[in-house]
Design goal:
18% of the residues lie in helices and 25% in strands. The chain has 528 residues and is of the alpha+beta class. The chain has 2 domains: 1-148, Sandwich (Immunoglobulin-like); 155-195 and 229-527, Alkaline phosphatase D (PhoD) (Purple Acid Phosphatase, chain A, domain 2, 4-Layer Sandwich), CATH 3.60.21. The longest helix is centred in the first third of the chain and has 18 residues, at 11-28. The chain binds fe (ii) ion (FE2). Residues 165, 192, 248, 423, 425, 452, 455 line the site of fe (ii) ion.
Amino acid sequence: MSDRSSPHFSRRTLLGGVTGAAALGVTALGGSGLAAARASSSPPKVVDPFTLGVASGDPLPDGVVLWTRLAPDPLNGGGMPTRPVPVQWQVATDERFATIVREGTVLAHPESAHSVHVEVSGLQPRREYFYRFRAESELSPVGRTKTAPALGAPIDAVTFSFLSCQNFPAGYYTAYRNMVDEDLDLVIHLGDYIYEGPSQGTLGRGHLPEVEVRSLADYRIRHAQYKTDADLQAAHAAFPWLVTWDDHEVENNYADEESDPDTPPAQFLARRAVAYQAYYEHMPLRRSSMPTGPDMTLYRRISYGELVDFNVLDTRQYRSDQPRACAPETRDPSGYCAEALDEGRTMLGARQRQWLLDGLANSPARWKVLAQQVPFAPMDQDADLAERSFGGDKWDGYVADRQRILDLIAQRQVDNPVVITGDVHVNRVCNVPPNFTDFDAAPVATEFIGTSVTSGGDRTLNTRYDIDPNNPHLLFRDNHHGYVRCTLKHDQWVADYRVVDTVEAPTSPIHTLASFAVDSGKAGAHRT
Ligand SMILES: [Fe+2]
């Protein structure tokens, strides 16, 4: 970005900077809070508690959330004493912490797995900052973050990448290893940050514990295992993140209180509560997202000046159960199962839906982003041109809620809505038609679907730009791994599909496989 105030901050300098910053910080961070804690008793010392790295998230014009978790023994319950531990934090304008602009002390509590979420305020808009933590005599790695532009401020460009689906046993995080060298304002994670299953893979990165996780202790170990990855840590330390979840943070294909396969709702909600708790503990989220039992408010809106509103959606917690598959002869003439067309079904829940509709109708931003999980545009899955069929876990199983959004966009002339999507482990670009049947009609929105970071592992590659006669609104299909880098300007959105050669080796080259643009004022993408 043009206002970057420090030299390019590569993965190498970030990781290499830890030692130097640590040496500096011992004197800079000699606070009274720790001394007081030591004076009260003589508990065992905490050694190397920053095994899970640091992170920042949910940037505002005047602040950001800083995150870490103290876990000297991350794969065995954390290894912390069962007492609160003071954690000092600092924010500086320079990597060497010569100019500290905010600092303080918070307590890391055992009931939150000794995670800390510091909501820093009083910072300058659209400015790069560096942060670190200290617990007892131990200093954390240094993270870099960046605040959002001032509300409504004119800005020339925003660049972010979005990712999803990072199954740990399925591959190395070669995408993250490359992504840290990008020049990004923000990273958006669209879910499947962890997988709950017992898979072990073949790369020596098998899931811990070696069972499907169901308890708070086991979800914590699973999150910790993912966070021990050096490439993932570097990506968190390099940029602020905006996170939302999909299903595997709890259980495959769950829907609100409905488990799949079915378990009694009360029993499933108890599991959802511990999964949400562990998710919150490991993400740079604000207190407004702190869970209460099985409920956690994750949908929220982040604005970047007058250029873009990110509407971060939660398509799991409030949705109706997936429609049952129906036999071809019982399908509606449109190809949908009758249940999928039921007006009473919901993907977002009434409250989130109204919040989104109000936000879209009233947004002054140039680009309105729906950052969410499952494919939004309709997708005929029947290869026979004369037949249509539509899947149930995606928006195709929740036609009424999707139509309410599309109708609002059309009626209120909401310009430049763009959906970014994860979930399906493939890259796609779709023009979003105005309804669930007329795929040739002029689009009202654009959808960029991003592939998985690792999920699915290396596979036979297949990249297609030809028109699928069943889905003429589908412009691009591909199954590399990687992420999507988006550069937003006033007149155009450009999405670069960044792909790696392999996830089954620790390192891989990366390149841009394809780029698609959306011109402001005209829904739909074209290849550049
Ligand atoms: Fe996934």
